[in-house]
Amino acid sequence: MDYIKIRFGDDLNDIGSRFERTLDQMFRSMNPMFSFSDRTWSPQMDIYETPDEVIIRGEIAGVEKEALEVEINSRAVRISGSRREPGRDKRGAYRLAEIQYGTFERILYLPAPIDPEVVSSSYENGFLQIRMAKQPPEKSQKIAVEDG
Fold first, then answer.
1. Average pLDDT along the chain
2. The CATH number, out of the four listed (2.60.120.10, 3.40.190.10, 3.40.50.300, 2.60.40.790), of the domain defined by the range 6-84+101-134
3. Confidence tier at 143 by pLDDT (50, 70, 90)
4. C-alpha span between 123 and 144 (Å, rounded)
5. pTM of this structure
């Protein structure tokens, strides 16, 4: 059985990098050739929630499993990796170029806290799927208030 690297951490809320990504995406939408960073594409992602799980499914065709990195904490998931451009004949010229290559990074904030100890992932036919168990709801307890 092959495994996808999953790292657990608490540093997914870096404001500086979020601001840089926002500017990067804004300028790239105007002209795809303009970019502040090496991140050159953003794969499509779905987040699906059931009563017991949060499921992320990412469309990352052409990315080798060894080039994927998944980092998880109880509130967010960071998925990064790279897709290499295949070799091409130098005598040819593109007439249409829509497929994006290079590195990517997505930080997805989860709709509910998850248990980082109960996570599984799979990669098949160009789709990454991450299944995460939700943390059980905190139980509250009423206590009697006594006189002084």
1. 82
2. 2.60.40.790
3. confident
4. 52
5. 0.68
